[in-house]
Design a protein that fits this description.
The chain is mainly alpha-helical. Helix content is 52%, strand content 5%. The chain has 14 helices and four strands. The chain has helices spanning 10-36, 46-49, 55-59, 73-76, 93-99, 101-116, 126-130, 147-156, 165-168, 188-191, 197-201, 203-209, 216-235, 254-286, and strands at 6-8, 67-69, 82-85, 88-91. Helix 1 runs parallel beside helix 13 and helix 6 packs across helix 14 (254-286). This is 3-methyladenine DNA glycosylase.
Length: 292
């Protein structure tokens, strides 16, 4: 195993795996408890339904590429994307890169493209408002805190500036032409920008897709960021979630806009460091740093 950069003795990596599982369990405790009794939560369950990744996935610790796990041969022999040599095991990043070359290229382009742009902080979370614009049926059961007519009025009083295709695709037909730019999947690497809540939430998705290449700590950091972003996303939405304990961020007011942007900037700072780490994972496996 000549691609080893770091070696972890069995007690070291076993402790890391145990601590990782404990952290993951704490992060997913609410979801698991609700699922056991058939309950749902409009905010906390989003990351498990929209991204379709189960809590158990977060418990599985990986050291990342280039880390040899001593005495892990038997424990990791059946794990995909691992190479076992006698008693030891290491992430088989070369096989992953061969079989997932299109994934690595695509994720790398989106991450680098997003990083290369200036962050925009003028959307005010209006994507959620555009998803209910002039519609009597809504995606969430919570009531609109301003009612339908005033909610529509908020949309009409602003220029929609969504830059994230996976938010834009849920716009109502009436809201689509109100967006500053039409968005499509092909142009995603050229339109995403680092101030976008959903682009930063998606770092969790990219971390999952990169599988064992991503160290466990980085995966859970991305999940925690996405969880925190989701709370702001819904607090700034048109829905009334006070019964769930969420005070609204009233983006229809000047004070609410200022509050939203302050949170948005803080999330962008957190995301910047995580995005750079994920780019490092992609580039480290590919062996190059291709341009967008």
């Amino acid at each position: 195993m000549n691609d080893v950069a770091t070696t972890l003795a069995a007690p070291e990596w076993a402790a890391s795996a145990r601590e990782h599982a404990e952290r993951a369990d704490a992060l997913t405790a609410g979801r698991r408890a609700r699922a056991a009794v058939g309950q749902t939560h409009p905010v906390d369950d989003f990351l498990f339904t929209y991204y379709s990744y189960k809590p158990g996935l977060l418990r599985r610790w990986h050291p990342g590429a280039g880390v040899l796990l001593e005495d892990a041969g038997e424990a990791r022999a059946a794990w995909r994307w691992y190479r076992v040599d006698g008693r030891h095991a290491i992430v088989d990043h070369e096989s992953f890169a061969r079989e997932k070359s299109l994934l690595l290229t695509g994720v790398g382009r989106i991450l680098r493209g997003t990083r290369s742009r200036r962050a925009q902080f003028g959307c005010f979370g209006l994507h959620e408002w555009a998803m209910v614009y002039r519609q009597s049926a809504h995606r969430h059961p919570a009531p609109l805190r301003l009612g339908q007519a005033d909610t529509d009025g908020v949309v009409e009083a602003h220029q929609l500036g969504c830059t994230h295709v996976d938010a834009f695709r849920f716009f109502t037909p009436e809201a689509v032409p109100r967006n500053r730019l039409p968005l499509d999947r092909e142009q995603q690497p050229a339109t995403e920008q680092p101030g976008c809540l959903h682009a930063n939430m998606d770092l969790y998705k990219w971390a999952v897709k990169l599988g064992p290449l991503v160290p466990g700590r980085l995966l859970l950091d991305c999940f925690e960021l996405a969880r925190d972003i989701r709370e702001l996303d819904m607090r700034a939405s048109p829905y009334d979630l006070t019964e769930w304990g969420y005070a609204p961020v009233t983006i229809e007011s000047a004070d609410g806009k200022a509050e939203y942007v302050a949170h948005q900037r803080a999330f962008a700072e957190r995301a910047e460091a995580l995005r750079q780490e994920l780019i490092g994972v992609v580039d480290g496996v590919a062996g190059t740093s291709p341009r967008v």
